Recover the amino acids of this structure.
């Protein structure tokens, strides 16, 4: 009997998720509740069965603040598309082709519409509602939007425009479509549901059928408009398949609707001949452990959740089924699935450990697949390629960890930030990737073969990207060190920092405002302040930077290692003029290991010599390669403007060409490069800032 219960639960989970992803995911709207020009909402609502409107209101009301925020984030990204409609107009090609063909058939000169107009209109009706419910009047408050609606309705055979077809008729069409889809999936037999999950094309066919039904429904006025313009369900689905990844790339808004729907609808034992009852206790089951907690690329039943403790921390373990993971990776290899494998979790313990059976990864290490895990506002992006060469035998497990830190660690991080006059603007978090053998012994992967894995941290309040930075916390030394980070605003007051790191650690984001008295009026003032605020460059004294003083080879290597967020290593390089007790020895060793420096033929490094401009170009070029940056083929003409180009040393010529060509390095003047000239401290800081921006490691 128990296995039957599990099957029934699975059936309803799949049906609910499928309906939600296909239906509410495409049109994640709320309910308009206010009066609208032409008609009042009550007229539209009256045309819908009460259970439809009640259901949509309940789903909206059941959303948590975080889920509502996800909808808001999608709206914000849609707004970004609206800022440059011409750039994105191809998103609505299929619908525009039908509108354009209809326009060419009409003789009315007042019905002028553009492809940008259609994109504007589609965006308005697909994501411009908020979960609390905006009226159509609010959505179409702009004059342009109302003009587009008026023209489309007239083009669709209603000369009176908004007098004949009220905007609320669109809401009627959307809400009825959502309800129809949910009920259709609920009534399907189990084998048919599983077939849909395994075959996305079948799911798409069903969605096309349902949209075509709405378009051909004589009771839906806006359906008649679309039909008269010859827009089909296929056209609509094609547009939204292209549009959704733009405003909901991680399907977070979609997941918000799924989880809210599960909470409202409950999970029942409906069958084709005996639909489940709404309300009461009969035929209703509690959702499985991960329903509403896990959403993502893999089926809900592919991820099993459990709770426990480890190292004194409460942990949620998410174990992925080997067969289903391998099947999904095989679909990526064959080009039938997205390479970004999304795994989103909510309502977990402070620490999440995602456990992947290593054997399932073996054939996919060169596939380009990427695991993107999110929990507690944190995100961790792990390319599967980092596991190449590791033991992926049966019984081994890859463990991806995202963890909130303890209050004690938070206090230590705060104390370290105070020491460098910085404010902590994100809750510290720990990220790691490890391998676990069949006996449970763990080994930290640690080195990512030069890859910079992305970690996302939510920022509290507003920050200045020029003064904020990611940092990693060394528990052994209590020191904060620079981590490359870029910042983006998801919505008003909601900013996320994306940290790029080649190693695992505890991370946070800090902000400071540093300057020096002797850079006032200096050409490099702004860049020096930015690099100092990000904890990359220091002064020669608390208020003094000495911007025009020569930069030594040891000083620049230390800055370069710091800029690339490399962990310094004990010295063993063996340069005759570098001792392990020298302040720069560990930075030099790290640079040697990373392939950034080699030293001179006589076995020296000459740490106190000034770094020349051509030496700097070579170091920057090697750093660009080590960090995985684009290294375009050099163009011989890049140095034509420099009269002294023939004095560039042969071993440096290619690097100078490359750095000049991509804008990392300029000449000493318009027609002089001065390859053997000294590099100043200001020039070094500016060049490193350009490098980080070119790598997209800094805004």
């Amino acid at each position: 009997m128990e296995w039957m219960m599990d099957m029934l639960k699975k059936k309803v989970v799949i049906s609910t998720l499928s309906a939600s992803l296909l239906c509410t995911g495409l049109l994640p709207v709320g309910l308009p509740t206010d009066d609208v020009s032409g008609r009042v909402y009550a007229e539209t609502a009256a045309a819908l069965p009460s259970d439809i409107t009640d259901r949509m209101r309940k789903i909206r009301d059941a959303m948590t603040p975080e889920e509502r925020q996800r909808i808001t984030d999608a709206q914000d990204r849609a707004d970004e598309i609206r800022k440059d409609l011409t750039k994105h107009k191809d998103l609505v090609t299929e619908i525009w082709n039908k509108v354009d063909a209809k326009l060419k058939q009409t003789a009315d000169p007042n019905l002028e519409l553009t492809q940008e107009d259609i994109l504007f209109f589609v965006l308005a009706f697909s994501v411009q509602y908020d979960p609390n419910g905006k009226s159509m009047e609010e959505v179409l408050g702009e004059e342009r939007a109302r003009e587009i609606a008026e023209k489309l309705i007239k083009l669709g055979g209603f000369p009176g425009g908004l007098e004949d077809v009220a905007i609320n008729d669109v809401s009627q069409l959307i809400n009825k479509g959502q309800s129809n889809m949910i009920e259709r999936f609920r009534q399907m037999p189990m084998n048919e549901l599983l077939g849909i999950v395994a075959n996305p094309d079948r799911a798409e066919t069903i969605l096309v059928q349902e949209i075509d039904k709405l378009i051909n429904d004589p009771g839906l006025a806006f359906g008649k408009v679309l039909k008269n313009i010859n827009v089909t369900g296929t056209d609509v689905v094609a547009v939204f398949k292209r549009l959704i990844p733009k405003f909901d790339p991680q399907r977070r808004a979609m997941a918000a609707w799924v989880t809210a729907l599960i909470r409202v609808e409950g999970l029942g034992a409906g069958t084709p001949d005996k639909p489940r009852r709404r309300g009461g206790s009969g035929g209703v089951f509690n959702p499985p452990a991960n329903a509403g907690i896990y959403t993502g690329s893999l089926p809900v039943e592919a991820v099993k959740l459990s709770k426990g403790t480890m190292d004194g921390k409460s942990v949620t373990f998410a174990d992925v089924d080997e067969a289903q993971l391998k099947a999904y990776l095989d679909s990526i290899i064959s080009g039938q699935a997205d390479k970004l494998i999304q795994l989103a979790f909510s309502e977990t313990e402070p620490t999440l450990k995602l456990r992947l059976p290593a054997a399932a990864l073996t054939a996919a290490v060169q596939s380009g697949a990427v695991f993107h895990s999110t929990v507690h506002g944190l995100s961790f992006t792990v390319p599967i390629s980092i596991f190449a060469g590791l033991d992926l035998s049966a019984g081994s497990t890859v463990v991806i960890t995202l963890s909130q830190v303890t209050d004690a660690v938070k206090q230590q991080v705060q104390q370290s930030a105070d020491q460098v006059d910085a404010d902590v603007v994100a809750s510290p978090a720990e990220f790691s990737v490890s391998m676990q053998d069949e006996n449970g012994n763990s080994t930290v992967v640690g080195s990512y073969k030069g890859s910079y894995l992305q970690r996302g941290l939510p920022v509290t309040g507003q920050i200045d990207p020029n003064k904020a930075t990611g940092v990693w916390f060394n528990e052994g030394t209590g020191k904060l060190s620079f981590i490359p980070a870029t910042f983006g605003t998801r919505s008003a007051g909601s900013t996320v920092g994306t940290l790029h790191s080649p190693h695992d650690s505890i991370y946070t984001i800090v902000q400071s405002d540093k300057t020096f008295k002797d850079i006032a009026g200096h050409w490099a003032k702004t860049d020096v302040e930015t690099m100092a605020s990000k904890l990359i460059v220091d002064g020669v004294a608390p208020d003094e930077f000495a911007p025009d003083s020569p930069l030594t080879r040891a000083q620049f290597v230390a800055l370069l290692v710091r800029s690339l967020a490399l962990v310094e290593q004990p010295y063993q390089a063996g340069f005759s003029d570098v001792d392990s007790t020298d302040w720069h020895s560990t930075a030099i060793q790290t640079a040697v290991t990373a392939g950034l420096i080699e030293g001179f033929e006589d076995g020296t490094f000459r740490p106190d010599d000034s770094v020349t401009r051509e030496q700097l170009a070579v170091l920057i070029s090697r750093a660009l390669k080590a960090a995985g940056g684009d290294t375009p083929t050099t163009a011989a003409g890049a140095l034509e403007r420099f009269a002294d180009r023939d004095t560039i040393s042969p071993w440096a010529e290619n690097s100078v060409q490359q750095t000049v060509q991509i804008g990392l390095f300029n000449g000493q003047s318009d027609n002089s490069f001065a390859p053997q000239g000294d590099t100043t401290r200001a020039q070094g800081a500016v060049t490193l800032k350009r490098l980080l921006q070119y790598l997209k490691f800094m805004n």
Summary: The chain has a mean pLDDT of 77. Residues 15-265 form one domain. DSSP finds 23 helices and 19 strands in the chain.
